[in-house]
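Mods, move this if it's the wrong board.
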Amino acid sequence: MKTDQQWGYKLRYEGTSLVLSLRHPPGTRKQESGVRGQGSELVQHSTFNIQNSTTPSSRSLLGVKILLDPGHGGLEDTGTVGPTGYPEKAAALKISNLVRDQLMQRGATVYMTREKDVDLSLKDRIDMINKVQPTLALSLHYNALPDNGDALKTQGVAAFWYNPQAHSLAVFLHNYLVKTLKRPSYGIFWNNLALTRPTVAPAVLMELGFMINPYEYEWIVNPTDQKKLARAIADGITEWLRLSQRR
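Not the wrong board. Structure tokens:
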């Protein structure tokens, strides 16, 4: 309760008593260590090193559980569509898989709400977050054109948060991607969305760009830029965790 960054909570009834359970901060561990602490987290044996965080082989995320949620999926939920007909659901799955690989190279345990083009309800996604109880949950999307929007001028990275424990993560990831990749900013928003609502872990939804903008669309589907984006997301998560454990 004394730290600036909170890591999640659950509420439940035991008879007539309302019980509040608070998450411990995430722990990192040396590769040879298997010592577990309270709850599902690992005892912290080492701190993150930013000099090594950009090197996937550094194993800087050992002991960290991350849940990735590729937006949309299935026949009925394609999400928005790019100028060539390429659907958001495919772009979201592609970047999520690349981010997963980057995080796993750093030693993180990564859970995916979907790994194929399958229909998945919002409840299914939320239930998985609550079951896994990850260190953090990140839902990855690409944006659609807002009402009365200009397809040529509307672009940029956006982050959405709801619970206060997720605010720092949303701000940090948004700013990190904008600065590192030199991308335009669409903004950081408080919003009561299904994938920002879970309380068991900091949960953030990222809109990584606008599919309908023809210039941004070229960046979205470029394989080289996809890899740069995935690495930047993994680096941003690593750095945020390092800084958050000091608060």
